[in-house]
Amino acid sequence: MKMQATAPFETVDHNALPHATLGAMKTNKETRYFVPALEKGLDILEALASAQMPQSLTDLARNLQRTPSELFRMLDALERRAYISREPVSEAYHLTLKLFELAHTHSPVDQLLKAALIPMYELAEAIRESCHLCVLNGSMLVVIAQAESPEPVRLSVEVGDRVPPLRTASGRVLTAFLQPAAQKYFLAGDPTYKAMRRTERVALVTELHRIRQEGYLLATSTRRTGLDASCFVGNPEMGIVAALGVPFLPGSANDGKERKLIPTIQSYAEQITRALGLTPTVTKGPAGR
User: What is the CATH number of the domain that holds 219?
Assistant: First the structure.
């Protein structure tokens, strides 16, 4: 039997369906091999990406602590493949848009789904709770993935469900990580925000500021009994953001322990961020607050 819960997206599933194992998805850590030529090429690309202006061969050799002769052939190969180009007068090197083009071959959602698949199922196994991944789409929060708890009684989330963001923990997390101008514009048009009293708006802005500092929200669900947790995924500077949500089932083994599990949830959110090739921008929140 499957009952619709009162919380956004959520249903309570009493079917003791077998939980999919992750054996096929998990891989053993591979032996790390050192590839000098590849390392050299990546060092050059990263050095040019971080430089404020085009770099000469001498500049690159000094910054990378290599000799010009070590870098010359690699620079020639990268230039022939259009990853870098030279200024017409100084002949200093700079990046082209080739890497940008490659990065946008697949949509951000496709990249999120691939990066989140294994960490989400591992999180569900680790804490014995279901979890889901959400993104903002216009004025709505959309669930793009979910992993069910292995427990026979569990909360589950409908992939594709759309709800007003400020009514959910994940929606507030994503609102908190909007750029200031975008956040102001979003709130001005959000029906939930417009219906708030002045004191409620002030409290919300304070909450959003704290969420951006700590990277998570643990709050009482507005639509059901129990707590909802959500942790930030991605890097707002790169325009790839999502929220990893966990609706805690009241009366479960985690009842009363929800806050202590925040660092665990954040560690899996960080795994997803790193799998995207991004650097995490938030510090794990305190477990004992």
Answer: 3.30.450.40
Structure tokens at 92: 């200093």
- State how beta strands 227-235 and 216-220 pair: antiparallel
Domain tally, the chain: 2
CA-derived radius of gyration, the chain:
23
Predicted confidence at residue 67, as pLDDT, reads: 93
Q: 48 with 160, same domain?
A: no
* CA atoms within a 13 Å half-sphere pointing along the CA-CB vector of 137: 13
Query: What are 38-64's pLDDT values in tens digits?
Result: 999 999 999 999 888 999 999 999 999
